[in-house]
Write a structure and sequence with these properties.
With about 650 residues, this protein is an alpha+beta fold. It contains 22 helices and 18 strands. The strands form four sheets. A six-stranded mixed β-sheet has the order 10-14-15-13-12-11. A hairpin with a 3-residue loop joins strand 6 and strand 7.
C-alpha cells in the first residue's frame, strides 16, 4: 500500500475510533449501574465491534484480539446468557485502558504488544447459561411510505423465512453478532429467487438478480412486497415460513431519497490555530484604526473603522466559537476515576454532572484535566465520610459528589461539591500554626473563609496518615498554581457537617485575552481582566500602616497595597489609582498612575532572550501602536518576595 495512503487511513482510524473509545468510559460505567440496559449493551458492543473492524483492516492484530474478546463477552450478555457482574466489568474497563494505550502507541508509531493472556481469559464468557425463553413476537409496524425498513422489520423478515432458529430444510447457524454472513444471505436469495435467479417456482414475474451476487433496489423492493404485501406486515400475504408464493405483479421501485448533505468537516488543529492567530492580528489592526480615527476626527475614517470593528468582532466570536468544546469532554473521564477511587476507599459514591453542555476553549479542556483530578480525589478522600459514619450522622450511606459547569460573563465556572463532613476552621487554624505557616496571633485574626483557603498553602495537609490518594502535603497548592497560570481563580466554601464546594473560574478563551490597560510611569501594562475585581481612587488618609504593610481600608476590610512602580523601575511617588486583583485565593490592590481602559489583545511571546522573565506572560501592541507587557500575575507575586509575604500574611 502507498505509504501516504496508509498514513491517511491510520489517521482516519485514530480519529473515528478515538471518538468511540472516548465515549466507552461513560458507557461502561453506566452499564455497570444498569447491566440489563439493552441500549447500553448494544452501544458498547457496537463500539468494540467497530474498532475491531478498523483495526482488522489495518492489520493491527493486538487490537483485533482485544476487541474480539470484549465483543464476545458483550454479545453473550446481549443474548441474556449472563449478567455483567463486578469482575466482568473490571475486565472490560481494563480492556478499555489497554485499548487507549494501544491507540496512543499507534499514534506515536510505537511497538504494540499482544494483550495479556490473563485479561483475555477474564474476557472469555465461559459456559453460558441457558437463554431465557424467547418472548412472544410483537406486531411489526407497517413500513414507512418510502419503502425502507428498520432493523426490527428486517429481523422479522428473516424470521419469516428462517424461523427463529434456522432456515427451511437445513439449519443455518446465525452469526454471534446477530448479523448474517455472505453465505447465509446467498441462501436467503436462493430460497427466494431459485437457483436460476427467479422468485420461486411459481413466480409469474421474474426478478433479475445481480450477477455480482448482490441485490438491486428493485429486487429488494419486490422482496419486501412479497413478504409485507402492499403496505402490510412481514408474512401478511405470504405463507410462512418458506417457500414464499409471490404476487403476479411487481411494485415499481420507490424513488430514492436524496442523501443528506454533510454538515460537519474535520479541520486539523494547526489550521484552526492559524485562523485564530490571523483573527487576533485583525483585532490588533482594528484597535489601531479605531485609535487613529478618534485622533484625526475624520468622519469617513471613523465610519469605516466602526464597520471594521463590527466585522472584526463578529469574525473573532465565530473563530473563537470554533475552538469551543463542551465541558462534558472534560467531565467524561471522571466517572471512571470516581468508580475506581470509591472502591479503593471502601466508600459508596454517586457522581452527578451538571452543565456538561457549557462550552470551553479546547486548550483549557486538557489544561484543566489534572487540576480537576486533584479536586475529585480530595472530595472523595477528605470530603466524604465512610458509609457507617454517614449512617450514624443520619446521612445516606452513599455520598454524593457533584460536578457543575456554567458561564458567568467572561468566565467559565466549574464547581466540585460534596455532601461530606465539611471543614472545621479551628482545626485548620491549629494545623497552620503547627506547620509554621503563621503564628497564633495571625491565625486568630483569620476569618472563617480565610481559614478554608489555608488548604491551598504549599505543604499543608490535614491527613493523619500518608496514602496513595492524598495526604502527602501536595496537591491543592499544585491545583491553585496551575489555575492561576491559566488566569483563573480558585475558592472554597464549606459548612461543617454539610459538605464543601471548590469553585474554579477560568477565562472563556485563551486565544484572545481581554485586558485592563494601565500606565505605570511611562510603561504600559496589560492586566488580565479576568483577575480584575474593581478600580477605585485612593482618598486622602485612606491608606495606613498595619503590621509593616501598607493597607487601605476598603469595603470594611484591610486591602494590602502594592506599588507596581517599584517592579517596573519607576522612581517617584506611587499613583493614586488602585486596581483590585485576585491572584488565586488572595486579593491585592495595585497602585498605578493611570487606568486607560479595556482592550482585546493577542499575546505575543517575547522570544528566547526573555524566556523565564518572571511576571511577564508576553507582549501586545496597543491601539496607538505602542508596546505593552502582558502581566503574569502569579509570576508577579512569586518574583517579589516581600509582596508574596504580604499576600500570604493577609490571607
Amino acid at each position: 500500500m502507498d505509504p501516504t495512503l496508509d498514513s491517511e487511513l491510520r489517521n482516519d482510524f485514530l480519529v473515528e475510533a478515538g471518538e468511540l473509545v472516548q465515549r466507552l468510559g461513560d458507557q461502561l460505567i453506566g452499564l455497570e449501574a444498569s447491566p440489563r440496559d439493552a441500549e447500553l449493551l448494544n452501544a458498547v458492543f457496537r463500539a468494540f465491534h467497530t474498532v475491531k473492524g478498523g483495526a482488522g483492516f489495518l492489520a493491527i492484530e493486538p487490537m483485533v484480539q482485544l476487541c474480539h474478546h470484549a465483543e464476545d463477552l458483550l454479545n453473550v450478555a446481549r443474548n441474556g446468557q449472563l449478567l455483567l457482574d463486578a469482575s466482568r466489568m473490571d475486565a472490560l474497563l481494563e480492556a478499555l485502558d489497554l485499548l487507549n494505550d494501544m491507540m496512543a502507541a499507534l499514534a506515536s508509531g510505537s511497538a504494540m504488544a499482544m494483550p495479556p493472556a490473563g485479561l483475555l481469559q477474564r474476557l472469555t464468557p465461559g459456559k453460558a447459561a441457558a437463554p431465557a425463553p424467547a418472548p412472544a413476537p410483537k406486531p411489526v409496524a407497517p413500513p414507512p411510505s418510502d419503502g425502507t425498513i428498520d432493523d426490527s422489520e428486517f429481523e422479522a423478515l428473516l424470521d419469516s423465512l428462517y424461523g427463529s432458529s434456522g432456515a427451511p430444510g437445513a439449519p443455518l447457524a446465525a452469526a454471534d453478532s446477530g448479523s448474517i454472513s455472505d453465505d447465509e444471505f446467498e441462501a436467503l436469495l436462493d430460497n427466494l429467487h431459485g437457483k436460476g435467479g427467479q422468485l420461486g417456482a411459481t413466480t409469474t414475474a421474474p426478478v433479475v438478480s445481480s450477477t455480482a451476487g448482490t441485490i438491486f433496489d428493485d429486487e429488494f423492493e419486490s422482496l419486501l412486497d412479497n413478504l409485507h404485501g402492499k403496505g402490510g406486515q412481514p408474512g401478511a400475504n405470504a405463507p410462512a415460513p418458506a417457500p414464499v408464493a409471490a404476487s403476479a405483479s411487481v411494485a415499481a421501485p420507490a424513488k430514492q431519497a436524496a442523501p443528506a448533505p454533510e454538515n460537519t468537516v474535520r479541520v486539523d488543529t494547526a489550521r484552526l490555530d492559524a485562523l485564530v492567530h490571523r483573527a487576533g492580528e485583525l483585532v490588533l489592526v482594528r484597535n489601531r484604526l479605531l485609535s487613529l480615527a478618534a485622533k484625526t476626527g475624520d468622519e469617513t475614517l471613523e465610519l469605516a473603522a466602526t464597520e471594521l470593528d463590527r466585522v472584526a468582532d463578529a469574525l473573532q466570536n465565530a473563530v473563537l466559537g470554533m475552538r469551543m468544546q463542551p465541558v462534558g469532554r472534560l467531565f467524561q473521564r471522571f466517572p471512571r476515576i470516581v468508580r475506581d477511587l470509591s472502591r479503593q476507599l471502601g466508600k459508596e459514591v454517586e457522581l452527578v454532572q451538571e452543565g456538561e453542555g457549557t462550552d470551553l476553549d479546547r486548550s483549557l479542556v486538557e489544561a484543566l484535566a489534572d487540576p480537576m483530578v486533584h479536586l475529585i480525589r480530595n472530595a472523595l478522600d477528605h470530603g466524604l465520610e465512610m458509609p457507617d459514619e454517614r449512617e450514624r450522622a443520619g446521612k445516606p450511606r452513599k455520598g454524593k459528589v457533584t460536578l457543575g459547569a456554567s458561564q458567568r460573563g467572561e468566565r467559565i465556572v466549574i464547581t466540585v461539591s460534596d455532601d461530606g463532613r465539611g471543614m472545621n476552621p479551628e482545626v485548620l487554624r491549629r494545623k497552620a500554626v503547627e506547620k509554621g505557616l503563621m503564628d497564633e496571633a495571625q491565625a486568630s485574626r483569620l476569618t472563617e473563609n480565610e481559614c478554608y483557603e489555608i488548604i491551598f498553602r504549599p505543604g499543608f495537609s490535614t491527613a493523619a496518615t500518608v496514602s496513595d490518594i492524598s495526604g502527602r502535603g501536595v496537591g491543592m497548592d499544585v491545583v491553585k498554581t496551575r489555575v492561576v497560570e491559566l488566569g483563573g481563580t480558585l475558592s472554597v466554601r464549606s459548612q461543617l457537617g454539610k459538605g464543601s464546594t471548590l469553585e474554579l473560574a477560568v477565562p472563556l478563551t485563551m486565544a484572545i485575552q481581554r485586558v485592563l490597560m494601565v500606565r505605570v510611569g511611562a510603561r504600559l501594562l496589560a492586566l488580565p481582566l479576568s483577575n480584575v475585581d474593581e478600580v477605585f481612587e485612593l482618598a486622602p488618609g485612606q491608606q495606613q500602616q498595619l503590621d509593616g504593610r501598607v493597607v487601605a481600608s476598603h469595603r470594611g476590610r484591610a486591602l494590602v497595597l502594592a506599588d507596581l512602580g517599584g517592579w517596573v523601575g519607576v522612581d517617584g511617588l506611587a499613583g493614586r489609582h488602585v486596581v483590585v486583583l485576585h491572584i488565586g485565593h488572595m486579593r491585592l490592590g495595585c497602585l498605578v498612575h493611570e487606568v486607560l481602559g479595556r482592550e482585546d489583545v493577542m499575546v505575543k511571546p517575547l522570544g528566547p532572550l526573555f524566556q523565564g522573565v518572571p511576571a511577564v506572560a508576553g507582549a501586545t501592541v496597543t491601539g496607538d501602536g505602542r508596546l505593552a507587557l502582558v502581566m503574569d500575575l502569579a509570576g508577579l507575586s512569586d518574583h517579589d518576595g516581600q509582596l508574596l509575604s504580604s499576600i500570604r500574611m493577609s490571607g
